[in-house]
Amino acid sequence: MKASNQKYLTYFTLVVTTALLVLVGVVIWHLLEHKRASAEIQLSNINATSLDFKKLIRPTFFNIEDFGGSIDKEDNSEALQAAIDAAIVVNKKLREDDKWDIYIGKVYIPSGIWKFQEGVKSDYGVEIFGDGISKTYMEYNGEGVFLDFSSEKEKFDLKLRDFFIKQNTSNSTAISLAQTNRNSHIDNIIVEGGGVGIALENCFTTRFSSFFIYNTKDFGVFAKNSTNTDFVDFKIENCTIGAKFTNSETNSAAGLKLISGVFQGCRNEGLILEDITNFASFSTFFEGNGRSTGRSQILATSDLNGEYDNDIVAFYSPFITGGFSSSSNSTAVLVENTKNFVFKEGFIRSNDKIKIGIQIGKNVDNAELVNNKFSGVQEDIIVEEKATNMVLDVELRHGRGYGRSFLGLGSESKKTNNRHYLESFQGLFGKNDGQRVGIGTYDGRPSLQGFGSGSSFNLFTNPKAGNHISAPNGYTQISGLKLGTTITSSNYKTDQKTHTVLVDSSEGDRKVDISTTEEQVQRYLTIKNTGASGHLVNVKSATTSIENKRTLQLKDGESVSLVHDGNQWRIVSLFSPL
């Protein structure tokens, strides 16, 4: 019996041992298989098309190292592409779910210097992130686009953050986006070198923040039809053109905004706006752009094809300075072919570089320039066409510096700390021959600059609210201002200050000679003989006639009002006492 029990015990022990060995083998096999599956993620499972996989527990992220990537390799392009392919969610219903962030694939590139020879791409949404701009460093040695996220199938979401891209060829583009939409966000990246930093086309509600792009051969940012797109807390430096925003269809780039950005040291323009529907910039800083001669720091223009002209371009609290690198005699802002232009609370400082602050060029319907300050700029504001409807400050104030100007001229005396006032303004004024008119100072007094043939007239009273300067039919007129009155008992020759001449002839006949400078269309003179002794005042024009006579005689108490019609003086009124 004991032998039989011993036999059964031995058999039982063998069975249990065998079972335990099988169980241990299954566990070991399962662990090894899981490890292998983790290293070689099966796309057939991850990219399943059934909604049953909504409950699939996806990895937190897909590490490029799990797909063969290594900082020791010369080319990690295939590894990065494989990680992206594994991460994307192909099923459209999953991507449209409200919990999209749960299903979006995340690709992780750890710290280190990663080299790439070829670009990667995806037609679907994905997130790529690193350990930070000072840790994850990617060198792209290829041509064309490095990170290409462009889809012709549908709009999709994309997130890129926390890495540095160094482009080593001059015709490459670091990041290209097309059809990105909704939650897309590019944040905390640096791009150095290459041809273009970021290229956009047909992107909607995308947000770019905390990025730095420098040393690109062509553009820091080039964008076509970027609607409701925000650029926040960024810097673009030492590119040929900092950023260019243009259109691809009607109503393009509506709601495009720049917020707290910096454009610095670009060889041509810092910013170009072309065929934009609605653009606004807030607290953007421009320094030393326009290093190439003839280039402005900001250019708003259009191809004038009749369909895509700039609609609204607005700058709020911009700061523009010539810095050390702008070309001499440069223009800070040039605006043309734009329906509505707004420049408010701005400051433009020359640094001996900027000659023209704001130039309103051809085909600008409305320009609103309010509460701006200028320092050291020779010509603060130039308006090229009379048709432009201008809205300006009630009172223009200027910073310290030399010789300010308004609409092209201004302080003829070139004294420091001149103050200029304009309390009421109606439209552009002055002739169309390139001369411009402005309110400035002359020897410390308010002065009208560039009047008529370019001379300056002292205005002995500061223009008051309600007075205005206008140019009907191209001829400058002044209303509501008191001009000079001359009282004399001697012979007198008029000059450009003369408006009314009172001549006392009590001691003998007197002469009033009208100088050649007075022979201007609509020039107006009033002359009166205030004597009472029977002597005459002989009024004579130097080069023309007065009502077909060489000399007009005024008796005691008589006065005459004359206006020049371009050929001769005409008598408007002649007064004789009874």
TrEMBL record:
Gene3D superfamilies: Single-stranded right-handed beta-helix, Pectin lyase-like. The keyword Transmembrane helix applies. It comes from the Bacteria. The chain crosses the membrane at residues 12-32. Keywords: Membrane, Transmembrane, Transmembrane helix. Pfam families: Pect-lyase_RHGA_epim. This is Rhamnogalacturonase A/B/Epimerase-like pectate lyase domain-containing protein. It comes from Croceivirga thetidis.
